[in-house]
Amino acid sequence: MSQWEVLADREDPAKAEVRPAAPAPLQPGEVRLALEKLAMTTNNATYARFGDDGVIPFWNAFPGPEGYGRPPVWAYVKVTESAHPDVAVGGRFYGYVPMSSHHVIAAQPVDGGLMDTSPQRSFLHPWYLTFEPAGEPDPLDDRKAAVHPVYPAAYNLADLLERKADEGARAVVLTSASSKVSIGLAAELAHRGTGLRRIGLTSRGNAAFVAGLGLYDEVATYDAPASAEQGGPIVFVDVTGDPDLRRGVAGHHAANLAATVLVGFTHPAASVLPPPDMPGPDPEVFFTPAVEGQTAQEEGQEVYRARYAAAERRFLEHSTSWLTVRNGQGPEEIVAAYQALLAGEQRPDEIVALTP
Ligand SMILES: NC(=O)c1ccc[n+]([C@@H]2O[C@H](COP(=O)([O-])OP(=O)(O)OC[C@H]3O[C@@H](n4cnc5c(N)ncnc54)[C@H](OP(=O)(O)O)[C@@H]3O)[C@@H](O)[C@H]2O)c1
Q1: Are 126 and 206 in a shared domain?
Q2: In CATH, what number is assigned to the domain containing residue 126?
Q3: N or C end of the chain, less CB within 10 A?
Q4: ∠ at Cα 42 (292, 57), nearest 5°?
Q5: Which of 290, 313, 332 is the last residue of a domain?
Q6: Is 150 in the pocket of ligand 1 (CB under 6 A)?
Q7: Nearest to residue 129, comparing CAs of 118, 137, 139?
Q8: What are 326's strand-pairing partners?
């Protein structure tokens, strides 16, 4: 099968199958991209779980036959065919594509990269439509394939928490402390020396891994939380999306809670909307593309990009001490990795870098 696509049931996204795909001829302005390498995190499970929930209809980005969608992934891609006069065959980019061997976009060259101008995806924030230039293959690419879509959340949260520390916050409580977002945030706060105590909350099974990272001042579990007092105002950053857990953690720290920031949806009970009855201050919903866009606009794209790139590189290099890379190949292994994520079977200390 030289060209294939993965179709998932929109109602039950773990039901996924590989089908042969028939390449359509390109229209003027279009380019065909071949998937080169991808890696997924629970972020991909979030796209699939909430794809029809109305906040961002992710399934509409890459629709399939009635009732099916092609799960979104972030991947390194190569231009294999071009009907755009300014886009050469062979260019290597990183962007948002369906879980398919090939993908066609209406392309517009921008800043060395490509913008996907396909009308089907015009509802998405430009963040999802930007294909960054990927340069030559790099030894950190396997890690970057997994981390690049989610590290912006960690990095922009670090900016937010630095401001909260300036306003008097003394501690941050992070859930899903074993996730890339939380680890990235804890590592960046440690690097910046904000003085915030970093409290990691995780599941029992991941507690030893999280403690071993050495990035949290204290590691507690969902069933045995940290001390409610943390020496001053606390910021709660939730990555689980679980309404009961959110209420429980906010309630536990309510006397000292300065802010609650809702970021992620790792747990199966996650709800896409904030629970209406959260103890403490009204939660802030954190949508990275909007926050990052605003920061880059205020600082200037180049200034922001440079400091972001340095931090991401540092995090990727640091990850060699706690994150191993397993390699996989072929559509069946890609589907298996995706299903493992949805089932919560992916270990936090490993990523799977997949080639088609
Ligand atoms: N708001 C935004 O702009 C934004 C941006 C980027 C990412 N996100 C979201 O942030 C979340 C984290 O992404 P990530 O890439 O950091 O994920 P990740 O590294 O794959 O996180 C893995 C961790 O999530 C928890 N988990 C995953 N599946 C589970 C399951 N089925 N049952 C119970 N726990 C499960 C476990 O942590 P514990 O055992 O420690 O709980 C696991 O170690 C995702 O929901 C993603 O969509 C949001």
Answers
A1: no
A2: 3.90.180.10
A3: N
A4: 65
A5: 290
A6: yes
A7: 118
A8: 352
Residue matched to tokens 């015009």:
122
- In which residue are the tokens 């950053």 written? 237
Residue 2: pLDDT above 90?
no
pLDDT at 292: 98
Q: Report yes or no: 176 and 264 within 8 Å, Cβ to Cβ.
A: yes
| pTM of the entire predicted model | 0.97
CA 331: distance to chain centroid?
21
CATH number, domain with residue 160: 3.40.50.720
166 and 105 share one domain: no
pLDDT tens for 278-314 read 999 999 999 999 999 999 999 999 999 999 999 999 9
CA of 201 to the centre of ligand 1 (A): 13
Using the atom order of ligand 1, give the atom closest to the CA of residue 181: 16
Question: Are 75 and 182 in the same domain?
Answer: no
Query: Other C-beta atoms within 10 Å of 28: how many?
Result: 8
Ligand 1 in reach of 180 Cβ (< 6 A): yes
